[in-house]
């Protein structure tokens, strides 16, 4: 059991590929900050979430971004989320503020509502796409290098073979 961290597994399909994702919800609670830092280390995608009805939660985003930049792997994919979009009457943070902050940090931005399911699937799909895109580049690079190494190994193997049949009747040229 992980105190302060809610853990879930979910399978989603992106571009015809089924991807199983692990979701670690730290709920942004300051008292668990030392625990949550260890979860950044292996993260490949992170939602930075604030409550649109709380200016205070929005102000904490800058601290969370700083923590992510310090503790998460380089190239981790990030999306800024303004949650509780169903509580428009309580709004303290404008949509434009969220969009501007996301732009400053080079992130995508969504306003979501867990209650009405607004943009939940879309935001998870987008984060998964970003993670896959980042890893496709790595995998393509690995495939290219592996292919070149394989071709080189085959060439070296061919060069070590004699040019013609060997004089012994027991030995095959191939």
From TrEMBL:
Enzyme kind, highest EC tier: hydrolase
Intracellular or extracellular location(s): Cell membrane
Cofactor: Mg(2+)
Function: The small GTPases Rab are key regulators of intracellular membrane trafficking, from the formation of transport vesicles to their fusion with membranes. Rabs cycle between an inactive GDP-bound form and an active GTP-bound form that is able to recruit to membranes different sets of downstream effectors directly responsible for vesicle formation, movement, tethering and fusion. RAB15 may act in concert with RAB3A in regulating aspects of synaptic vesicle membrane flow within the nerve terminal.
Subunit structure: The GTP bound form of RAB15 interacts with REP15. Interacts (GTP-bound form) with MICAL1, MICAL3, MICALCL, EHBP1 and EHBP1L1.
SUPFAM superfamilies (alphabetical): P-loop containing nucleoside triphosphate hydrolases
Protein name per its UniProtKB record: Ras-related protein Rab-15
GO molecular function: G protein activity; GTP binding; metal ion binding
EC number(s) given by UniProt: 3.6.5.2
UniProt catalytic activity: GTP + H2O = GDP + phosphate + H(+)
Record family assignment: Belongs to the small GTPase superfamily. Rab family.
SMART domains associated with the record: RAB, RAS, RHO
Record's keyword terms, sorted: Cell membrane, GTP-binding, Hydrolase, Lipoprotein, Magnesium, Membrane, Metal-binding, Methylation, Nucleotide-binding, Prenylation, Protein transport, Transport
GO cellular component, one term: plasma membrane
Gene3D superfamilies tied to this protein: P-loop containing nucleotide triphosphate hydrolases
Region (Disordered): 154-174
PROSITE patterns: RAB, RAS
GO biological process assignments: protein transport
Membrane topology note: Lipid-anchor
Record-linked InterPro entries: P-loop_NTPase (IPR027417), Small_GTP-bd (IPR005225), Small_GTPase (IPR001806), Small_GTPase_Rab (IPR050305)
Chief location bin: membrane
Pfam families: Ras (PF00071)
